[in-house]
Amino acid sequence: MAVREKMFSTIASIFKRHGAVTIDTPVFELTEILAGKYGEDSKLIYDLAYQGGEQCSLRYDLTVPFARFLAMNGKEYQNIKRYHIAKVYRRDQPSMSKGRLREFYQCDFDIAGTYDPMIPDAEVLRILCETLDALDIKKYTIKLNHRKILDGIFELCGVPADSIRSISSAVDKLDKLPWSDVKKEMTDEKGLAAEVADKIGEYVQLKGNHLLLDRLYDDMKLVNNGKASEGLQDMKLLLDYLDVFGIRDKISFDLSLARGLDYYTGIIYEAITEEATDGVGSIAAGGRYDNLVGMFSGTNKKGKPSLQIPCVGVSIGVERVFSILMARQQATKSKATEVYVMSVGGSLLKDRMRIARELWDAGINASFMFKNKAKLDKQFTACEKDQIPLAVIIGEDELNQNVVKIKDMRQKDEAQGGGITVERNSMIRELKARL
Amino acid sequence: MAVREKMFSTIASIFKRHGAVTIDTPVFELTEILAGKYGEDSKLIYDLAYQGGEQCSLRYDLTVPFARFLAMNGKEYQNIKRYHIAKVYRRDQPSMSKGRLREFYQCDFDIAGTYDPMIPDAEVLRILCETLDALDIKKYTIKLNHRKILDGIFELCGVPADSIRSISSAVDKLDKLPWSDVKKEMTDEKGLAAEVADKIGEYVQLKGNHLLLDRLYDDMKLVNNGKASEGLQDMKLLLDYLDVFGIRDKISFDLSLARGLDYYTGIIYEAITEEATDGVGSIAAGGRYDNLVGMFSGTNKKGKPSLQIPCVGVSIGVERVFSILMARQQATKSKATEVYVMSVGGSLLKDRMRIARELWDAGINASFMFKNKAKLDKQFTACEKDQIPLAVIIGEDELNQNVVKIKDMRQKDEAQGGGITVERNSMIRELKARL
Lengths: 435, 435
Fold this sequence. Notes:
Two copies of one chain form a homodimer.
Chain A: H1 2-17, E1 21-22, E2 28-30, H2 31-34, E3 56-58, H3 63-73, E4 80-89, E5 103-112, H4 119-134, E6 140-146, H5 147-157, H6 164-171, H7 179-189, H8 194-204, E7 207-208, H9 210-217, H10 220-223, H11 226-244, E8 251-254, E9 267-273, E10 281-289, E11 311-316, H12 318-328, E12 339-343, H13 349-361, E13 366-368, H14 376-385, E14 390-394, H15 396-401, E15 403-408, H16 413-416, E16 420-423, H17 427-434
Parallel strand pairs in A: 1-4, 6-8, 12-13, 12-14
Antiparallel strand pairs in A: 2-3, 4-5, 5-11, 6-9, 7-8, 9-10, 10-11, 14-15, 15-16
């Protein structure tokens, strides 16, 4: 929990640096809000028992509840940078080794609102880089693509409109499978003509940087496709902004990235690292989703959504990051205790309590042994076990002379000869000087 | 959320000062774990739908999950100070005006383990006082009583053993009802003989300080009752320790305090304040519960619990405290943004982005308007709306001269004449000096 809390506070501080606020949504939503948002994975949603009232389900992610919130409160929150670090629930087969749990944290940052193109998108990517840097994740790459470029490619290669999402999800497997397997899925399983698949193959195996963009701009078939052209313009502007933000070297423009979720409408991205405990792994992902809020806003007279708020966001895979941080971690100090109050000989319980009280009053984190007759060696063991840096030691002599002994537990015994003796009324000052 | 987060971090810092760690338990438990722990209120438990696997329910409080956790992991965690700030769920009729929600935060601190008597109990009460002081709650009193004293009183007054808990819960209403009504409940509803009720009445209307304890010690009938005598000894020791911890003036020994929950076995307490938004109200409560962990530990060959870990704890009523803090609050600054980057004339978008990047690199919280053509007055309005203290302003002139203007938004315009001009390479230093 100490590692986890530090990770969360590091992430939150970056989000706040960029002017974000946090919003908390309930752990359960109306079942109908979640229905039809997660494709096949909808079967993993936990429902609450019907006990009268509304039918509710536990949230599956934080994005759909956020979009629902915006649709309900959009007038007030049309422009917002919000983050949310909270648990989500999936009725999956749990596997400790794969880090797959039924209850786990998600950590989302999103920018909602209508702005000039690609500016918020660039800031989200900048925030992702700042976050991974602050978490000290080494060797990461952000794969970047655009749904409109992909859809344009599918269109001009001759993929039927109603097969586009399904072909797209086959493409998304190129990070794990060779092209031959992906082609086989397209043709054998999904009935695509082999020559169409081959044309797709020429595009989706391309990856690179702005030079790839230049190359695509030379492809007049692509440039003349309306969707692809919009995507290329976005990408050109974005790469330009990423340059200004100093993060273009982190980005790989990768035409094989397709992302599973249906609701993306613009750029999509995924951060991968070689440092993941289970090999190269995804540690963050996101994209632009301009139509999700409209799905919850109701419709106007013309049958259009009555409120449409474009959004772009990223979800940090905090459970995976947590595994990386834990693997790195040496023995963690879980307690914040700064001073352990001990006595030598006799009980002196109330005297230890009196000193602890003084320390608490001064805002110092202090503990003592909950025993009348506390043995010195046991007190030392307790102090060492919790890696408490300082000890205050009293005995009859110290009490009579109105002094205390201070021992720095971080130093070897010889260096300080059993501690220094200070006046009782300078105890707080002496302790603070050593903390 | 800003007020809420500040409240939580204040509370957590006090808990950490006393050597506590936090433990996170799942939001749902096996239904059987929760069954029979909450008396009549068990009907308020949310169950999950049965979708195969185990039958689960949402947690109703944080104490039962903690006790279940200790029973499962007790060997490793037999001595622990733990806190947990998290949401609990009750299928109650929600009422915004009464602050009664179906999902709300609880904030628990508990000390588990076998120690010398009343030392952890005293520290829990000290922590409660430190917390309420840190939250700046004024005029609070901690009502204190002991289950064994109460049960001894019931015994010697002649209450049948199987009526003790039900008579006890009638006594607990003395904070809201006059004695005559409580007596009526005992006799008319619960079938107690009038003379037995009258005897109880002589005791449970007593409240005071150590002088009340002295008075009870003079009552030989009470002193000769085994249970009551144990309770009196505990109380004597506790008041002594509370004196050492400097909080005895906050305590009112109150024989009418009985507390609803069945699982308390020793001291019980409740903090009330006159500052509550709905009149005098309870803002924290707790007590000692020595047998709860044993209910989850399984039994040994002799039919006794195989693991018994005594506990004492307190739950801070954070939703109520939150209402008090909100009622006090003036306009809250929800964002942490420190600098707003603006431009005069033309677009200069990339120049604003470049400066924002420099500020982020320096760890400064900065924002700018997501527009190519940003009007100066709109930028000023955005800056003022979020109460951002500093503005960096650039125009063509500033860019040509490699300078920026810094304007302190907290000062009246006249005082600074539209801001000061500084060299671009001293911008960060100048900003930090003003933050």
